[in-house]
Design a protein that fits this description.
By secondary structure, the chain is α+β, with helices and mostly antiparallel strands. The chain has two domains: 39 residues, no CATH class; 87 residues, Leishmanolysin , domain 2 (Leishmanolysin, domain 2, Alpha-Beta Complex). Helices cover 22% and strands 9% of the residues. The chain has four helices and five strands; from the N terminus they run αββββαβαα. The longest helix is centred in the N-terminal third of the chain and has 12 residues. It is globular, with a radius of gyration of 17 Å.
């Protein structure tokens, strides 16, 4: 008897609760570093505001130095990452811009592409990972190619 392997691509239990659950997870994992406002769907430094520090997002532009440096690697001359200005309060001003970055995982929308012949699935970019360094997290990033096929060893 042959047993076909099923590929599971989704890790979201309920689309209605994914953001609050993710925020609660961040707060639980880093109670001394961040606090979470579930009503406004924000993650803040636990000790914010801090005198002499500025916000990373203003006027639809993200300007954190580590993420922008990673973004500039693929967007020559970029000085900011575009931030979503549309959508509801949990999307506008807090996610990468969907129109500019389409399938990047940290835009405010999950894009569905069930085709096995295209590579339009959602992806997590280097600049999204490096945005964590802008928040004060220690980040070690290694570039690697991944075609969506799991390696079994």
């Amino acid at each position: 008897m042959s047993v076909a392997a099923q590929v599971v691509k989704k890790f979201i239990n309920d689309p209605e609760t994914v953001v609050p659950e993710a925020l609660a997870g961040v707060a639980a994992a880093h109670p001394g570093l961040v606090r979470v406002d579930l009503e406004k769907q924000l993650v803040l430094r636990a000790d914010a505001p801090v005198a002499g520090k500025v916000g990373l997002v203003s006027g639809g532009q993200y300007t954190g130095q580590f993420a922008v440096a990673a973004y500039e690697e693929t967007h020559d001359g970029a000085t900011f990452i575009p931030v979503e200005q549309d959508g509801g309060s949990g999307t506008a001003g807090s996610h990468w811009d969907e129109q500019a970055l389409i399938n990047e995982l940290m835009t405010g929308y999950i894009n569905g592409d069930t085709s096995t012949t295209t590579v339009n699935d959602n992806y997590l970019s280097k600049f999204s990972v490096m945005s964590l360094a802008d928040l004060g997290y220690k980040v070690t990033y290694s570039d690697y190619a991944y075609d969506g096929t799991p390696t079994i060893t």
